[in-house]
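Morning F.,

Quick status update on the modeling queue. The single chain you submitted on Monday has been processed. Sequence for confirmation:
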Amino acid sequence: MLYQLHELNRAMMAPWVHLAEANARIFSDPSSWASSLPGAERVAAGNELVHRLGKDYEKPPWNIHEVEVEGHKVPVLEQEVVRKPFCRLVRFKRYSDDAATIAALKDDPVVLVVAPLSGHHATLLRDTVRTLLRDHKVYVTDWVDARMVPAEDGAFGLDDYVAYVEDFIRHIGAADLHVISVCQPTVPVLAAVSLMAARGEPVPRSLVMMGGPIDARRSPTAVNNLATRNPLSWFENNVIHTVPPPYPGQGREVYPGFLQHAGFIAMNPSRHFMSHWDFYSDLVKGDLQDADSHRRFYDEYNAVLDMPAEYYLDTIRTVFQEFLLPRGKWKVGGELVKPAAIKGTALMSIEGELDDISGVGQTAAAHDLCTGIPKAKQQHLTVEGAGHYGIFSGRRWREKVYPQVRDFIARHDG
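Structure tokens below.
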């Protein structure tokens, strides 16, 4: 009943949340008489904080409309190229009227960014995609909120995730493709390419794996410890709930987004408390630039999706409890996953020195498994001073990580 209670509480709070939004606007709008009252800025700030703490956060838009290529501003159009029940394959297509720019765009490498299905929407990789678009043709896996997938569309497990990745690689064309996996998908991406290589299918030119739990036994973090401290039955009984009406996925079992969000906050509550207090203080002082930065961050951070129960439980068991991939015992659809079968694909792993989600060494473990890849085609990067998000978003990503990713892809683009 927890999901139903959450929805009931959300419905009961909605009028107060909307009232707080209205009050914030009334007491902050210079054209309103209320904004001239003593203490108006504090009333406005307090109401906006209440509104933002209580409001629903929908999936943010990608908002990638142009990018600079060869010194020119190039328009970007978001296109859905494949739709599956639990995922959309999206291409960000660049356009230009300049002949030289068009010629440069045609020669750019093709990249598939496999976004994580681990709570947040794929738009968390907006900065990753926007930066890659300077020099690449970019496709992204845009995962669907499980509560929006009708129950009659069936279950979705980790094996299905691997199959999706295989289908997307085939659709784009493996022969000229480079695959970048961020965090959680490093495991299913490595499995997908391993299976394709073992079957003799074409495989991507390169794999770039960023901050993922290839071998979660190395440098275990709080995330790893939670998974190993409790049996699988604990997760089934405590975090799996049924989607209620009126969502299209009613009746589907999921790991709800609101529970995941509570877990994110619980990992560092003091930091989030201080962030909201600073937001209130910035509004009172009239520091609108910092306040707007807070809004942008939490609009993304607070937007979460429900994960299919089968997929979540499969991941807990396979990746974090039984470590089947590094132990060489993982079977997908009856086929043994053998990373050593990968031979022609270049491999780059990237880790953050201060990553508190995927510990140092967990991603680099891919090199120990992919023994068929020549050392000349392998590269590892540890980003000093970077946490989990810093390796794919923000200044460190743009200035330190991306140039090396770009050059690695260029070297192996044939």
